[in-house]
Write a structure and sequence with these properties.
Elements: E1 2-4, E2 11-13, E3 26-34, E4 43-48, E5 58-63, E6 68-73, E7 76-83, E8 90-96, E9 100-105, E10 108-114, E11 127-129, E12 132-134, E13 137-139, E14 143-152, H1 158-167, E15 177-183, E16 198-200, E17 208-210
Antiparallel strand pairs: 1-14, 2-11, 2-17, 3-8, 3-14, 4-5, 4-11, 5-6, 6-7, 8-9, 9-10, 12-13, 14-15, 15-16
Amino acid sequence: MDYPGLAADITVELANSNVPAGTGALSITGWVNPDADGTADDQVIIAKSNTTGNGGAFKVQIEEPGNVLRGIINGDELTGVGAVSPGVWTFFAMVYDGANKTLFLNAVQDATEADVGGNIGTDADPLRLGGVKQNGGVARELDGLLDDIRVYTRALSLAELQTIFNSLGVDGIVFGLHWRWVQNELSPGTAAVVVDSIIDLAGTFDGDPINSPVYAEGILRI
């Protein structure tokens, strides 16, 4: 899916579903291809939050300056060091084991630190791809492409991340898979205006586009 960036108010609304109560570990993985180095604002990939700050259950975004990855869980943030290059598909992951949070780029560790710990928060904040909801609108919109975004209710191993990275969608790693969103593929450039444009392969929690992002050539080979 192609998200055109700042002030476009384009995102995918995934309602307010939570990870199961008592979840004390989490992994978020996916593919992102930003259009250009951003200069105006950070770019949200996925957020269970209603703020551009560190509030909410979790968030993964591309941070400015430097196009580095930032992961947030329960208000505790970790910023990576490697750039998420524009015009290139990058596989990212944030892994939280209940005590430590680690960021990966292309299945290589990018940054890690001790986390505040505890279970993942549950609340009524909306869950979104490509932006975060704030004050009734959308903020920090992504400028670029997303595909195969997953949330696992456990900490994935490095070997599992390497398998997902190398298999391009046919890895079969489903244990603990809570959500997995892919495009309900139509021809690139077609406006995503129908219900269930984003399909949850792990269940029935599908997503609806806000203000019509368009389909793009994805990374998957399924």
